[in-house]
Amino acid sequence: MDLLRRLTNSPKALVFSYLLLILASSGIYWLVEDGKTPGDALWWSVVTASTVGYGDTYPETWQGRVMAGLLISVMVLFVIPLITAHFASKLIVDNDAFQHEEQEEIKNQLRQIRAIVERLAPADAAPAAAALDAVEARADADRR
To answer: Most buried residue, 41, 70, 75, 144, by CB count within 10 Å?
Structure first.
């Protein structure tokens, strides 16, 4: 699972996986289809993976057809959604969210405010401390 996460979280890994898939399917197509050049096989693989399917070259053997089905399935069900999800996640990032360091700084400032309030007005310290505890609890909940 860790290998899959590393392969899908990096744009470089996605591009590498895509190119590897294209080359592997081209090689298999070239081996199983008679009379096809490596260039024809690469063209077929790119056209099939992109789901364009011009029809100028197509598999005629059952092995080639199985390869075509696998290539199309992997592209449509895995590679294209992973690329789309990667770019979508870059658009959805919340730049306004507090970072851990900022939350810790706020909690430290709340502790300092609590100490000042307790020194200034001991009688009013309990309600103020409760309010500060609520703010601190909310900061902790937001972090999770």
So the answer is: 41
Taking the C-alpha atoms of residue 119 and residue 123, their distance in angstroms, rounded to an integer, is 10
CA dihedral 10→11→15→16, nearest 10 degrees, is: -30
Q: Is the pTM of this model over 0.90?
A: no
* CA separation for the pair 42, 26 (Å, rounded): 5
Q: How far apart are CA 78 and CA 124, in angstroms?
A: 60
Are the C-beta atoms of residues 131 and 106 closer than 8 Å to each other?
no
Identify the CA nearest to 70 among candidates 54, 49, 55, 88: 49
DSSP label of 78: I
Q: Backbone phi, then psi, for 106, in 5-degree steps?
A: -65, -45
Running along the chain, 144 residues long, what does each successive block of 10 average in pLDDT? Answer: 65 83 92 90 90 82 89 86 81 73 85 81 71 77 65
Q: What is the DSSP letter of 77?
A: I
CA-based diameter of the chain, in Å?
Answer: 94
Q: What is the token pair recorded at 115?
A: 């100490």
